[in-house]
Amino acid sequence: MTRFLAQRLGGSVIVLLGLSVITFLLARVVPSNAAAVFIGPRARPDDIARVTEQLGLNRPLPVQYVTYMSQMLTGDWGISIGTKRPVLGEILSRLPATLELIVAAMLIAIPLGLLLGIMSARRPGSISDVGVRVVTLIGVSLPAFFLGLILQLIFFRGLDLLPLAGRIDSDLRFTAPILPVTGFLTVDALLGLNAHGFLDVMWHLVLPALTLAAYPIGLIARMTRASMLETMSRDYVRTARAYGIGERRIHGRLALRNALLPVLTIIGLVLAYSLTGTFFVEVVFNWPGLGTLAVKSILNVDYPAIMGITLFGAAFYLLVNLVVDVLQAWLDPRIRLA
Amino acid sequence: MAIAEAAGEQLARRRAPFPMRAFVRDPLAIIGSVIVLLLIVLAVLGPIIAPYPGARGTGQIDVPSAYLPPSLSHFFGTDELGRDVFSRVILGARPALVVSVLVVGFAMLIGVPLGAIAGYRRGRIDGLIMRTTDLFLAFPPLLLAMVIVAALGPGLEHAAIALIISWWPWYTRIARAVTVSLREQPFVDAARAIGVRDMTIIRRHIVPNSLSPLVVQATVDVGTVILAAGSLAFIGLGARPPQPDWGLMVADGRSVILDQWWVSTFPGLAIFVTVLAFNLVGDVLLRVLDPRHGR
Question: Phi, psi (5° rounding) for residue B229?
Answer without folding.
Answer: -65, -40
